[in-house]
Amino acid sequence: MPCARSRAGGRGGDGCALQRLVDVTHHVARLLCADVVVRAGLRLKAEAVAGRARDLRREWWECVHEPLAEAERKGELAAGCPPHRSSAVVLAATTGIEVLPGRTPAGSPGSP
């Protein structure tokens, strides 16, 4: 899946796999914070009937897992950090991001 290379507007194929993952994660976070249409789309997707729409969470998993698997092949991941476990951590940290904009308590980091 080309998402980590092309959609982040970052380093493309010349950077390390882990940096591409960081870049695409930052890009997604910026979109969620700045674009009400992106947030609405994710909300609608979450409420959609299973099997009738694209599986955005599965696509995000692929965007996360691909650079981690590449990093493992290149020896860029620490020993004992297989891609499936690393993917689980990134997914856990980022899937909740879709609900944060607009729900962050006033005065806390990230609040308007």
TrEMBL record:
InterPro entries named among the record's database cross-references: Tet_transcr_reg_TetR-rel_C_sf
Protein name, per record: TetR family transcriptional regulator
Organism: Streptomyces azureus
